[in-house]
Amino acid sequence: MAISTINLSSLDGNNGFRMDGAAAYDFSGRPVSNAGDVNGDGFADVLIAAPGAPNGSFSGSSYVVFGRASGFDDKLDLSSLDGSNGFRLDGELYSLFSYSVSSAGDVNGDGFDDVIAGAPGANSSYVVFGKAAGFDAAMDVSSLDGNNGFRLDGAAGDGSGASVSSAGDVNGDGFDDLIVDASSADPNGSYSGSSYVVFGKAVGFSATLDLSSLDSNSGFRLNGVAAYDSSGFPVSGAGDVNGDGFADLIVGAEGADPNGNYSGSSYVVFGGNFNGAVTALGTAGADKLKGSKAVDRMVAGDGDDTLIGRGGADVFHAGAGDDTIEIRDVSFQLVDGGAGYDTLKLDRSHLDLDLSSVYGRISDIEAIDMKGNGHNTLTLNALDVLNLSSTSNTLTVDGNNNDTVVGLSNGWTDGGIDHGYHTFTHGAAVVLVGVHVATDFV
């Protein structure tokens, strides 16, 4: 039965739920965002700002609420978060912390998504790293020390932190990047505005980063065109707009006047090999990119491409098209199939690929080909299948008669054999296994 209207008052825990702010004038819910998977349990988390919350006047708070499979009540009081079901982030005095909030992606490449919250009253933004466990009920962002997160400082009067976002992997190095506004900056006249892109990395974060210190290795600045454009309010990651394997950016400039006063403009900025991190770069055609025995970072671009790794902590961005990514071991840093129908191929024997153990390191893969040199094992659960592709809940697996697929998480249903594939389902997750491959689903 088609549904045209849902009254939010009807949410009962089965069809959704309500989250209530902790106190009067917290303004909880202004704004809100997806948080990614902060604790790495396979469920998406949510981020709720409460810019009026007191930790001192105009300090503000944000709440991260963990996702889970079931057990939702019709409402959740945000004051009840205790570290096991989520946690609170508290800003500093007069900072307007959580004026803007967003998932930060996985900035440090540890497999856990991070969050970012802007505090324009302090001309700052705060990045808090995700982790598996050990969350306290509350965390003061003044305690960030480079190991648990860091602060981004804009120049006085720039208004930095009014808009923040994950940028995706703009430079193709395998780490998610950040974009932060400074819409009151004046590089090309008063309030022309700027935005800053900060590159992610594995280690070496200080407690604070001055945005004015960015160089070609750590990020770059986008300057507004003319006075009073207010470029940078807002900013966002744009996804891969042109299908070249690099994440792109979008920047608003509400004060621009190309067609009259305040008609406004928006700018899409394509990602690219800005700091030379990419070792193999494709074209708009069908490419075959081959790696070396060293660490490779491949970005294939458009076309039906083949990316061939030779082992190690490689990064694969396949871009648009129906692509094949070949790996010789499971120590890769990142596999990103991009748009299209993409296949991950195990190109050696006796490989044991456990999708849970590489969670967060594989995305947008619709098929796995185990037909290397034999005796390969693929281990998965239902959540692994659902998280593997952003466009499909079905994983197709091919292999030889000495390869094995192991399905964990009790409750798989054997749907029999059809058109050469053995079907297994678990809720919305579907796995199609070639008939020559041994299976062990529970």
What does this structure look like?
It comes from Nitrosomonas supralitoralis. It is a single chain. With 442 residues, the protein is an all-beta fold. 2% of the residues lie in helices and 36% in strands. Strands 21-23-25-27-30-32-36-35-34 form a nine-stranded mixed sheet. It has a five-stranded mixed sheet with strand order 2-3-4-6-10, with no helix packed on it. Strands 7-8-9-11-15 form a five-stranded mixed sheet, with no helix packed on it. The two termini are 33 Å apart.
Q: Beta-strand level of the residues, as a percent range?
A: 35-45%
CATH superfamily label of the largest domain: Integrin alpha, N-terminal
Taking pLDDT < 50 over at least 5 consecutive residues as the criterion, the unreliable ranges are none
Number of domains: 2
Strand order of the main beta sheet, please?
Answer: 21-23-25-27-30-32-36-35-34
Second rung of CATH, namely the architecture of the largest domain: 7 Propeller
Protein name: FG-GAP repeat-containing protein
GO molecular function: calcium ion binding
Pfam families: FG-GAP, HemolysinCabind
Keywords: Glycoprotein, Repeat, Signal
